[in-house]
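During the reporting period the student researcher (J.K.) took over the structure-prediction task from the postdoctoral fellow and processed the backlog of single-chain submissions. One of the processed entries is reproduced below for the supervisory committee.
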Amino acid sequence: MRPAFSVIFLTTLIGAGQGLFLVVFGVALYESVPRSLLLTTGVVTMLLLAAGLFASFFHLGHPERAWRAVTRWRTSWLSREVIALPLFGVAVLLWTVHGWWQGTPSPTLGWVAALLAMVLYVCTGMIYAAIKILREWSHPMTVFNFIIIGLASGAVLAAALAGFVAEELKGVFEKLALWLLGVALASRGYTMWRNASLPPWSTARAINVHHNRIRQIGQGAMGGSFNTREFFHGQPEERVKQVRWVALGAGFVAPLLLLAFESPALAFLIHYAGLVAERWYFFAEAKHPQNLYYQSVG
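J.K. obtained the following structure tokens:
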């Protein structure tokens, strides 16, 4: 599939925002978290959501019609995501305002926001997992990866923020980030291996020509089309493999090492760059069956 950077930034930014809120709110249930970190978490979460939402508009042919997306909520996971995203943002806003006004955020509002964050993760993941024809996505690990990678990125960001406004909790968030990054690395590494091992849906024999050697020498079309633009990334296989290693190295391995040396701010910057590569690869590794005829030539 063709990776759209607007969607890449949408999913990585809001995923980090959800993870940041869930991690800090979860730690606050067991540890005494300073008001400064709680309020910073609320503000940064809303900024990430706003940035992701802004990026998503560059993917729309007619942004003025975006509101119509909510009308298909009964059958469309995209519509459900469009509903869950602003609801989560509003819940975080109320939680943050309550904390600023009353001195401590409301636990009830926090639980509501946490529930909506998880609903949003599921909706985002199911947009892709529900596409049965793409076997790389149509798997339970797709939703799990969206959740665990989002939580990991949120934990790394929480450790970085704690280094500025709550130094006493920096170690707590660093340890949590190490565990979540480790699980995310194992989970995403497994799905990369699984997807690379999947046999093709079909071969050139699908045209029902019985011959021992069949070689495709043309696309079946003289020019580009919607199919050739939207369902193929357009990059050589070697480039795709390079992005995969960048995603694993910068997205998971390097942040793990930097967190071990207590450098969470640098760890998050490198992690996010790797996360963008990981999300690009997520789209590129999904092989649409139509590309057997439209793109695989040689």
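The committee noted the following: The mean pLDDT is 88.
J.K. will present the remaining backlog at the next meeting.
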